[in-house]
Amino acid sequence: MSQGYHHITVMADEALEILNVVSGGVYLDATFGGGGHSERILEKGGRVIALDLDDEAIENARRLKERFGDRFSIFKGNFKEAFKFCRMAGVERVDGVIADLGLSSNQLEQSGRGFSFMRSEPLDMRFDRTAGRTAYELLSELSVEDIAYTLKTFADIERDTKVAGYLKEYFSKGMPNDALSFAEYIRGCRFIKRNRRIDPATRVFMAIRMLVNNEVDNLTTFLARLPMIVKNDTRVVVIAFHSVEDRIVKNIFRKFVRQDLVETEGIKLRAELLIKKVIRPSERERRSNPRSRSAKMRAIRFLRIG
Q1: Which residues share a beta bridge with 98?
Q2: Considering the domain boundaries, does residue 71 fall inside one?
Q3: Domain-ending residue, one of 196, 212, 228
Q4: Which residue range forms the structural domain that includes residue 67?
Q5: The predicted structure's pLDDT at residue 2
Q6: 210 touches 218 (CB < 8 A)
Q7: For residue 245, is it within any domain?
């Protein structure tokens, strides 16, 4: 277990109630993180196949392996390839899926990768430090047009071209590879619309992190491939933390429902929404864990036809 690993699980009770965990059932935790959802499923007698890209999360998972033995498996990998890892675990289809799309508290507070703009850390932002380019490297190479597209697509930032031009200067001038310095520079941008409740750096950092980790494509692929791992009465719960992610989840879930029939490997399924809109954290949870305030939970169930 990583020393000092810290994370507060969001909407754990609500997720477990919707998943309707049964002893002996098999569940996929597609974004293990701090492992709170996995632990709750295991405590109810379920088996968990967990995925994560972060080596610190994988190390933290040892505590569950020691406690629950063969009922818990974890793989380092991208959830868009969930079907592959399920088969590596000897499982064709699962009884439930949980995907918490938020950053773990550990990533924000202790990772040293610049996920938070409140600390002096390198602008890395990779979930997997062994793959791809860091945020600093990527932004140093991208054009103003590419940065503008990132800001608009991933964070709905207005005047995106003006903001992108301003941000590009930070990297063109070789300014410090430091999250704290970059955040202070962002606050000096006169093109960013001000909001008293949100730091101007918040959405910029979010957009860059999503670009670095290819989060939109990975999420879209993961959801589109769900029929490859579900069966009768499989329940899928997804917790998103900003509008771009939530919009993807909402649209793909609704597409499944509208299709009436989803067929994969000879298995015919239909889908129904388990939540008509969204579930948000209770007022009590928002007070005790302010980072949960933007969370939105959606859920769907697949049912076999014939």
Answers
A1: 29, 237
A2: yes
A3: 212
A4: 12-106+215-304
A5: 40
A6: no
A7: yes
